[in-house]
Specification:
With 330 residues, the protein is α/β, with parallel strands linked by helices. The protein has helices spanning 64-71, 95-98, 118-128, 135-148, 165-177, 195-212, 223-229, 247-252, 257-264, 271-276, 307-311, and strands at residues 15-29, 35-49, 53-57, 79-84, 87-88, 101-104, 183-187, 215-220, 232-237, 240-246, 317-318, 324-325. Strands 6-7-8-3-9-10-12-11 form an eight-stranded mixed beta sheet, sandwiched between helices. Strands 2-1-4-5 form a four-stranded antiparallel beta sheet. Bound molecules: adenosine-5'-triphosphate, iron/sulfur cluster and magnesium ion.
């Protein structure tokens, strides 16, 4: 996998998804005749190699879901480009890409239609595409998908309310796999689940990835959740990507003050790493995305902020061997 803010990296044959300068601005009314742009995703670039995972972390409201939805064009981008297997999907009919690009939602309670049976939920994508006109073949395929995600086949005609959160998320994952995708946005797939169930679902997603060569954009609040599943991790703050590196490198050597803050708030099993990691206490609230600070978006909470930080937005740059960070004072 390559993580880069260089716009030429799509030339790499093994890159499945590339995002170039992606922007999603929402027009928000602030008065009777006034509206402002809420920059939910602002100039974000990266690429993901086939079969690998890019984890995305950041606090609530930083733009993770909007990033995932915009990549799938469930939201229309305001600017930038999205390339799937080297081809821009921007001016294409998304029906051509829906089979290949799927999403698993955060909330396994709200995302499943309560009036549909498990088989109809999983079979929906197959039915829309008329993939299995033969009823017996359709049934076999749904049963196969149920088995793949660890659902007992006798649940075929059950309704979502009869399942636990973890089982519902298994249904959501089976649904996302039904049309044979290559790329899946996993939008906080485990954050609504009990901690004991989270590892089971993450392990299953990892097994599925290996078996089917899936490529994931894996969104989470928490760095601890993305650590193991992600080859690379990107940290977002107020719509910007502020750091992007190999997962191990990001944990060992966080460069951006915001990443250092996120990491200092999670427990570390390794005592050497724990001692070497300075605890950083941050003050201040996340600014409203409707009126972000000038210059660096993190400056009102950053212990290193100075005049330059108030004037110029730092760009995401390679600090060496693919570890990218956006800060004037690394
Ligand atoms: N349809 C919309 N219209 C206006 N603003 C929106 C819309 N969708 C999202 N936003 C705003 O965009 C910003 C990013 O929201 P988003 O849901 O992408 O964040 P997130 O990182 O996924 O947060 P969370 O961790 O809570 O899921 C927020 O300020 C949110 O209020
Ligand atoms: S650019 Fe300045 S305010 Fe922003 S993270 Fe770096 S030091 Fe802090
Ligand atoms: Mg979200």
């Amino acid at each position: 996998m390559t993580v880069s803010n260089q716009t030429t990296s799509g030339a790499g044959k093994d890159i499945l998804l590339e995002v170039r300068g992606l922007k999603k601005y929402f027009q928000v009314k602030t008065g009777l005749f006034k509206s402002v742009d809420l920059k939910a995703v602002d100039d974000v670039s990266f690429s993901i190699r086939k079969g690998e995972t890019l984890g995305i972390v950041g606090e609530s409201g930083c733009g993770k879901t909007t990033l995932g939805r915009t990549i799938l064009r469930l939201e229309e981008p305001t600017g930038g480009d999205i390339l799937y297997a080297g081809e821009s999907i921007l001016h294409r009919d998304m029906n051509e890409f829906r089979d290949k690009m799927q999403i698993v939602f955060q909330d396994p309670y709200a995302s499943l239609d309560p009036r549909k049976t498990v088989s109809d939920i999983i079979g929906e994508a197959m039915d829309i595409r008329k993939m299995y006109p033969n009823k017996a073949e359709r049934r076999d395929r749904i049963l196969e998908l149920m088995e793949l995600v660890g659902l007992n086949q006798q649940f075929y005609n059950r309704f979502p309310h009869e399942f636990s959160g973890g089982q519902r998320q298994r249904i959501g994952i089976a649904r996302s796999l039904a049309a044979g995708p290559s790329f899946i946005v996993c939008d906080e797939p485990v954050s609504a689940l009990d901690v004991s169930i989270q590892a089971q679902i993450i392990n299953m997603l990892e097994d599925l990835q290996k078996e089917k060569q899936l490529t994931y954009l894996f969104i989470a609040h928490d760095l601890a959740v993305v650590k193991h599943i992600s080859r690379h991790v990107g940290v977002m703050y107020l719509g910007h990507m502020v750091e992007l590196a190999e997962s191990y490198e990001l944990y060992k050597n966080p460069l951006h003050p915001y990443t250092q803050m996120l990491l200092s708030s999670i427990p570390v099993a390794n005592p050497d790493l724990s001692r070497s990691r300075k605890r950083i206490r941050l003050t201040g609230e996340i600014p409203s995305p409707l009126s972000p600070p000038s210059g660096c978006p993190f400056r009102n909470r950053c212990p290193k902020a100075d005049g330059k930080c108030a004037e110029c937005l730092p760009s995401l740059e390679d600090t060496g061997s693919g570890h990218l960070a956006a800060c004037h004072h690394l």
